[in-house]
Amino acid sequence: MTTVVKIGGARAVDPEGALADVASLVDDGEDVVLTHGGSTAVDETLEELGKEPTYVETPGGVVGRFTDEETMDVFKMVMPGRLNTDLVESLHNEGVDAVGLAGTDGKLLCGTRKSAVRVKEDGKKKIKRGDHSGKIESVNADLLETILAGGYTPVVSVPMLGKEKSGGYTAVNADADRAAAAIAGALEADLVVLTDVSGIYEDPDDESTTIDSASTPEEFEAVKDAAEGFMTKKVMAAEEALEGGAASVTVATANADEPITSALAGAGTTLEPGALADEHDADTEADE
């Protein structure tokens, strides 16, 4: 069984324990695909360049990044550049033969570009144009499986390859949680989403109310009702992963000695395929 791990990009996330844990799992003969976020690093770089990051709210109430051309240039520099390279370097220092990949490599992550997005501003629905984002519609699982079969550990970063109406392709932004979800679904893998909290809480301000698991539609509805803020996207991504064929999804803290091993053993909040109802109407507008 393959495990897909997503390390969050929040400032409070320390990847050290996760990287050591990846090394232990690989040493034990497990296949691991590592993915990562980086929104904080992108925002900090934009601010250093004198540009304010732009976030928008969809009509469905989900907040996401608006990626104009200048932001996309910074995104490409930071995500598959500095952050991915740093993780690959760290894994090599842990004894792991890591291979850095962008979603554009080998058409690893592909979909349709969205040049305009529906947003809600001042209570009104509007169309905001000039966006460089997309929704992942296909994953080159063969590429990942070939790399894994060769004894290497892929480290995957967005951007994805967005297909233009003209028929060409453009590198565009995609949500990192949903990218990890798409990969986990394509590989029928367990997905571990590591973040800066211990799981999904019934009370967002109280860690003691962590929801251990959801294995029925009723329990999953309770998880969705409990998710607020950034956790809303993670639950959305979890649902997409399970719909796509993932074996399980666990949301857990990255800030532990063996966060992946602990998550697979039951730490955090684990969502099972049985939690999905027969029909889904998840909001799909927040992929920027």
Automatic annotation (TrEMBL):
It catalyses: [amino-group carrier protein]-C-terminal-gamma-(L-glutamyl)-L-glutamate + ATP = [amino-group carrier protein]-C-terminal-gamma-(5-phospho-L-glutamyl)-L-glutamate + ADP; [amino-group carrier protein]-C-terminal-N-(1,4-dicarboxybutan-1-yl)-L-glutamine + ATP = [amino-group carrier protein]-C-terminal-N-(1-carboxy-5-phosphooxy-5-oxopentan-1-yl)-L-glutamine + ADP. Substrate binds at R65, N173. Residues 263-288 are annotated as: Disordered. Pathway: Amino-acid biosynthesis; L-arginine biosynthesis; Amino-acid biosynthesis; L-lysine biosynthesis via AAA pathway; L-lysine from L-alpha-aminoadipate (Thermus route): step 2/5. It is an enzyme of class 2 (transferase). One of its GO terms (molecular function) is ATP binding. Residues 1-252 form the Aspartate/glutamate/uridylate kinase domain. It comes from the Archaea. The record marks K6, K234 as: Transition state stabilizer. It holds the Pfam family AA_kinase. Keywords: Amino-acid biosynthesis, Arginine biosynthesis, ATP-binding, Cytoplasm, Kinase, Lysine biosynthesis, Nucleotide-binding, Transferase. Coiled coil: none annotated. The keyword Phosphoprotein does not apply. NCBIfam families: argB, PRK14058.1-1, PRK14058.1-3. Belongs to the acetylglutamate kinase family. LysZ subfamily. This is Putative [LysW]-aminoadipate/[LysW]-glutamate kinase.
